[in-house]
Amino acid sequence: MAPKPDPMDDAAFDRALAADLARPEDEDVALLSRAVLSALADEGPGRAAPVGEVLAEPLPWMVGFGGLLLLFGGLGYGLVPLVDGGVVRAVSELTDIVSLLGGM
Q: From CA 76, how far away is CA 83, in angstroms rounded?
């Protein structure tokens, strides 16, 4: 087994990284630590979430959407006659029916 090269110690790594990232206007920027960079480089669970986690519980969403669609469709069907004077027409037809039954 080949020996692994000695990893750079944290202080040397921070100095080298700070020198590479240094800009003249950034005089007071703290040195970045290897732990922070490693945490940023690690692939978290959110990057490659399976489809089952993204589309969790599609059936309740589908049922809810269908229920809302039926609710608003029924409301629209019931309220459309009110837009074109349906109330007056409905009352007129009711009075005709009541007059047949004995008058109003």
A: 10
